[in-house]
Write a structure and sequence with these properties.
Blueprint: E1 7-8, E2 10-12, E3 15-17, E4 21-26, E5 33-39, H1 42-58, H2 66-95, H3 99-120, E6 134-142, E7 145-149, H4 155-168, E8 172-177, H5 183-194, E9 202-206, H6 209-218, E10 224-228, H7 231-244, E11 248-251, E12 256-260, H8 266-278, E13 288-294, H9 298-311, H10 329-344, E14 348-351, E15 367-370, H11 377-380, E16 387-393, H12 396-403, E17 408-409, E18 411-415, H13 419-428, E19 433-436, E20 451-452, E21 455-456, H14 461-465, E22 469-477
Parallel strand pairs: 1-5, 7-8, 7-10, 8-9, 10-11, 12-13, 12-18, 13-16, 15-16, 18-19
Antiparallel strand pairs: 2-3, 4-5, 6-22, 11-21, 14-15, 17-20
Helix pairs in contact: 1-6, 2-3, 2-4, 2-5, 3-4, 8-9
The protein binds nicotinamide-adenine-dinucleotide.
Nicotinamide-adenine-dinucleotide binds next to helix 6 and helix 7.
Length: 480
């Protein structure tokens, strides 16, 4: 897709369309506007839903032999692989992330389509024995129209995460892209289009959350909501879903902790800290935002994490710097405000806590707080920036109580080489997934999601597919 003017359109019902308004997109590394995109309103949402309904009613995806859907998903994956190098610079620039990470997002997106292509023809029901008088079986039917709301931190990856299983199961999908980082997703739409996705099976529309997003989730003709984003927005969306009692998947925020025991391998730990909190400038729902460290090694770990934070090369994502800007001025202000509050509440600021003086864009220094206690907001509240809070502990029980001591439950981690401690920790930590000796261990094959305020439902892995189908039981009396 060549686009010399850098103005982008929405993809509705198989067509590229403008809207009455446009949205400017800025470059977080400089703050300068460099592109624009059509900004959808309620009328655009209505058009997308009408196209999706036509697609669902036609049965083009739901009634075909499932291997045809598998082939379609494989073709989409191949198209995504072809465009990864071209789409990555746009995604990196609009989002602030590194070029390498932006390229990886497209490759991960391709993997989602390959993975769920492998499942499209294996969505098998059960035969349930009821004795000689009956034949009973279950079938999985697509839910219909899946409305999906995507956040800005990994827009291409997260879009593919829900889109691929939904299509594999035979649904039509409408995605509302995030208003500050929608451009990479237009490349994803073009890959789907080129692969021959039927008209109406996918619309990707950009617009404000309170306009296009709200209109989509309140639309009376959608059958399901998949939301990834903040807790406050998720709760609003759930109220709307409750009006029509439609099912939803909620992937919300986190305040995840790594528990570090004295036998932890320091190189493994530091490599995990680097990825866990400084990758994508800390804007990861499952970021390692808290480090709970046994007192025997506490001073050493604080010193080494500080050294790591100070060694990171701050710079432009296009240059693949270690620490890139956060995605918006608003996000930068929020992170800096939370750092100021942490200081006011008595946390020890060891390094960072400010915007680097020599940079124009939305940068935040790699920040380490030590001696953080459970009453402090930096211990309980999601920052969504490159900020880690370190707390000492004396006993295993205390460590798990601290780890579980927030309203969130997305991920948790443990660093130890003792098998029995690992097993106790994996039971004691209240979270949707537990990483042992490597933060972010797992992959698209492993179920992902939260408990408590981190949400419900699972994405990724085989389990996710069953969010996109309804089980129907058919009971047949065969005797007179
Ligand atoms: P956000 O809630 O502000 O926005 C998310 C999306 O919701 C955006 O597309 C936005 O336009 C839309 N939206 C906003 N108001 C809406 C409304 N009233 N109706 C419908 N849609 C609306 O979140 P964000 O700032 O984009 O993302 C950051 C948050 O997302 C963090 O809390 C992070 O932890 C969370 N997150 C969670 C996961 C996960 O898998 N659990 C992944 C990424 C991000």
């Amino acid at each position: 897709m060549t686009n010399p003017t850098n103005h982008w359109q929405n993809y509705i019902g198989g067509h590229w369309v403008d809207a009455e308004q446009t949205l400017d997109i800025d470059d977080p590394a400089t703050g300068a506007v460099f592109a624009s995109i059509a900004c959808a309103d309620k009328n655009d949402v209505d058009r997308a839903v009408a196209a999706a309904r036509q697609c669902v009613d036609s049965g083009v995806l739901s009634d075909c032999r499932p291997v045809k859907r598998a082939e379609l998903l494989q073709r989409i994956a191949a198209e995504i692989r072809k465009i990864a190098d071209k789409g990555a610079p746009l995604l990196a620039r609009e989002n602030g992330k590194t070029l390498n990470d932006a390229r990886d997002e497209f490759l991960i997106a391709a993997r989602y389509f390959e993975y769920y292509a492998g499942m499209a023809d294996k969505i098998e029901g059960k035969s349930i024995p009821l004795g000689a008088d009956y034949v009973d079986f279950t079938v999985y039917e697509p839910v219909g129209i899946s409305a999906q709301i995507v956040p800005w931190n990994f827009p291409v990856d997260i879009c593919a995460r829900s889109l691929a299983p939904a299509l594999a199961a035979g649904n039509a999908v409408i995605v509302k892209s995030p208003e500050i980082s929608p451009l990479g997703m237009t490349w994803l739409a073009s890959a789907c289009h080129r692969a021959g996705l039927p008209e109406g099976a996918l619309s990707i529309i950009c617009g404000y959350g309170h306009e296009a997003g709200a209109a989509l989730i309140a639309h009376e003709d959608i059958d399901q909501i998949v939301f990834t984003g903040s807790v406050a927005t998720g709760q609003n969306i759930l109220r709307s879903a409750a009006e029509r009692a439609i099912p939803s998947v909620m992937e919300l925020g986190g305040k995840s902790a790594a528990v570090v025991f004295p036998d932890a391998d320091m190189d493994q730990l530091l490599s995990s800290v680097k990825w866990g909190i400084f990758f994508n400038a800390g804007q990861v729902c499952s970021a390692m935002s808290r480090l709970l460290v046994h007192r025997d090694i506490y001073d050493d770990v604080v010193a080494k994490v500080t050294e790591l934070a100070q060694s990171l090369k701050v710079g432009n994502g296009m240059d693949n710097a270690d620490l890139t800007p956060v995605a918006s001025a608003r996000q930068q202000q929020q992170v800096l405000r939370m750092c100021d509050q942490a200081v006011a509440e008595g946390a020890r600021l060891v390094t960072g806590g400010q915007a680097p003086a020599d940079r124009k864009g939305y940068f935040v220094e790699a920040t380490v707080f030590a001696d953080v206690t459970p009453e402090m907001s930096i211990f309980t509240d999601e920052v969504f920036g490159p900020v880690i809070a370190i707390t000492p502990f004396d006993s295993e029980e205390e460590a798990y109580a601290l780890a579980n001591g927030t309203d969130y439950g997305l991920v948790a981690g443990v660093f130890t080489h003792d098998l029995t401690t690992t097993m106790r920790a994996s039971r004691a930590l209240k979270a949707g997934q537990v990483f042992v000796n490597e933060w972010y261990a797992g992959g698209i094959e492993t179920p992902f999601g939260g408990i408590k305020l981190s949400g419900f439902g699972r994405e990724k892995g085989q389990e996710a597919l069953y969010s996109y189908v309804n089980t129907k039981n058919v009971a047949i009396r065969v005797s007179k």
